[in-house]
Amino acid sequence: MRNLLAIPVMVLAFGQAMAADECGKVTIADMNWSSATLIANVDKFILEHGYGCDAELVPGDTMPTGTSMIEKGEPDIAPEMWSNSMRDALDKGVAEKRLRYAGNSLSDGGEEGFWVPEYMVKKYPELATIEGVKKHAKLFTHPEDDSKSAFYGCPAGWNCQISASNLFRALKLADSGFDLIDPGSGAGLAGSIAKAFTREEPWFGYYWAPTAVLGKYKMVKVDFGSGIDKQHYIDCISANECVDPHPTMYPPSLVQTVTTESFAETSPAAYSYVSHRSLTNNQLNGLLAWMEENQADGEVAAEYFLTEHEDLWTPWVSAEVADKVKHALQ
After folding, report:
1. Hey, what's the torsion of the CAs at 7, 13, 14, 15, to 10 degrees?
2. Is-contact 164 207, C-beta < 8 A?
3. Which residues, at least 6 apart from 291, have a Cβ–Cβ distance to it below 8 Å?
4. Rg for the chain (alpha carbons), in Å?
5. For the segment 73-89, what is each residue's pLDDT rounded down to a tens digit?
6. Which helix (H) or strand (E) holds 94?
7. CA–CA separation, 207 vs 193, rounded Å?
8. Chain centroid, CA 212 distance in Å
9. How many CB atoms lie within 10 A of CB 69?
10. Residue 117 DSSP SS3
11. What is d(CA 24, CA 76) in angstroms, rounded to the nearest whole number?
12. pTM
């Protein structure tokens, strides 16, 4: 009789263990830029087909998504959160056990810098340094004034306009004849690079990664010879009123996967996947270039990635999950 009574208890315990790792419904923030929508769609496919989740994409953006996760507990996953932009609020959410930092979406962080085309550095290797750029300033012809050299800054109204302008002053580029050009828009800035590459002309200016532009056009980040002074970057370079800017390379931006605590607790296997899912800037730049060239949306790009780059994503999951995802792709 004792053995017979033990059977329902064992079944109940087993059922509870299964329920504790049952994925269920999962909402994923689909941010409004290409790298984020690619990762969100990869997550949706893997969570649906590999872990049996009922995964749904919901519109998102950094601030509103972070705030909603803290206050309302949804969405469950923010796949690409540029967390420095709301660090205090996210840290508080983690401390209060509302959120978890699952891992780094970008293993090497978001990247910013001043860049020159690779073909220019092959011709003049010293252009890989800021002193070399100053020495060859005359190469970078201004589009409207032959007496000046052109430095393409960040568009007006963008946060990066502040840092790029302050570093332009810190590096004393005006003393070498450079003029800080406002490209007017992100498209204008990208267009100036495309035009230069089409003609193999000199170009010097600000850009960031991950982006399709740096995936498509091979650029070299100029070394300021300063190293990274993160505190000075925070206190002055990124501040509107920076009286005495000093040269510093841009510190990498922390780009993380953030989840709700409830998702992490109730779906540990799925949480383990998002905590291991990470790409480098170079990998993501190449994928974004493919998206742009093929005019692919996030869903199409995710299937391309999962089909063509098994070497990148299969280490994130178990062999059993990988087989399920591959079967679904077929």
Report:
1. 110
2. no
3. 34, 38, 212, 301
4. 24
5. 999 999 999 887 788 89
6. helix 87-95
7. 10
8. 12
9. 28
10. strand
11. 11
12. 0.82
How many residues are recorded in the chain?
Answer: 330
Domain boundaries, given as residue ranges, for the chain: 22-109+254-329, 111-237
C-alpha pair distances (Å), 313 with each of 36, 110, 283, 308: 16, 20, 12, 10
Please name which of 42, 73, 76, 78 lies closest in space to residue 63, comparing C-alpha atoms: 78
The residue-averaged pLDDT of 107-123 equals 96
Are the folds of 22-109+254-329 and 111-237 the same? yes
Please report where in the chains the tokens 């007006």 appear, as a residue: 156
- At 279-313, the pLDDT tens digits run 999 999 999 999 999 999 999 999 999 999 999 99
Query: CA–CA distance from 137 to each of 112, 131, 207 (Å)?
Result: 21, 10, 19
Q: What's the CA angle centered on 178, arms 173 and 182, to 5 degrees?
A: 105
- Check pLDDT > 70 for residue 29: yes
CA distances from 122 to 116, 118, 202 (A): 11, 6, 12
Domain 22-109+254-329: give its CATH superfamily: Periplasmic binding protein-like II (3.40.190.10)
| Alpha-carbon torsion, ordered 27, 69, 35, 47, to 10 deg | -30
Q: How far apart are CA 93 and CA 68, in angstroms?
A: 11
Work out the angle between the directed axes of helices 298-308 and 34-51 (0-180°, nearest 10): 60
The partner residues of 259 in beta bridges, in order of sequence, read 77, 100
Residue 229 has pLDDT above 70, yes or no: yes
Both tokens assigned to 53: 């989740």
CATH, domain 111-237, list 1.20.1080.10, 3.40.190.170, 3.40.190.100, 3.40.50.300: 3.40.190.100
Rounded Cα distance between 326 and 49, Å, is: 9
CA distance 183 to 275: 38
